[in-house]
Amino acid sequence: MSDRVAVTKEQIIEELQQMVKVQGRVPRTSMYPNFERARRLFGSWPNALKAAGLENEQKRSYKEEFLTAEVQRFAQELGRPPISGPHEFPLYMSVMEYYDSWEDFLEHAGLRKYASEDEGAEVKEKLILDILQMEKIMRRFPTMSEFKDYRLVRYYFGSWKAFKAACEEKKMELS
Description:
The protein is built from nine helices and no strands. By secondary structure, it is mainly α. Helix 7 (about 120-140) crosses helix 9. The longest helix is centred in the C-terminal third of the chain and has 18 residues, at about 120-140. The radius of gyration is 22 Å and the shape is elongated. It starts with 8 loop residues before the first helix and ends with a helix. InterPro entries: HNH_repeat.
């Protein structure tokens, strides 16, 4: 016996209508967890939308409140705000329909692009020690693209240059 509960046509219709209320638009197929089931039950995605009465609903813009809630959710999962661009926040282009800059959007969402100076001392220390270890192995200072945690570096140090300066200070302190 399967632990999975079968999703009915009625449930799909209700979910789609609820998503439109929350998001302000018809959900993308990639954002609807029961897309394959809806497609099978209704014969196609457009038929599922039609059954839910959503065939003429807006398909482009998300509600500002939904975007704000999503970036806050992403920030919670990442432990920091997502870096601008679709690689870390797939709804980035929708954000740019409302805001002049990523920084304005983060501020609206109650987030900061960069950590405060006193934030994350342990994380900063670990990043520095990790890259200094890499430097020993590589016999040169790694590039940003060689360091898997460069997004954390950007958040906590503001730039790769500031991070390198902090690493130099740490090396002097250790010697």
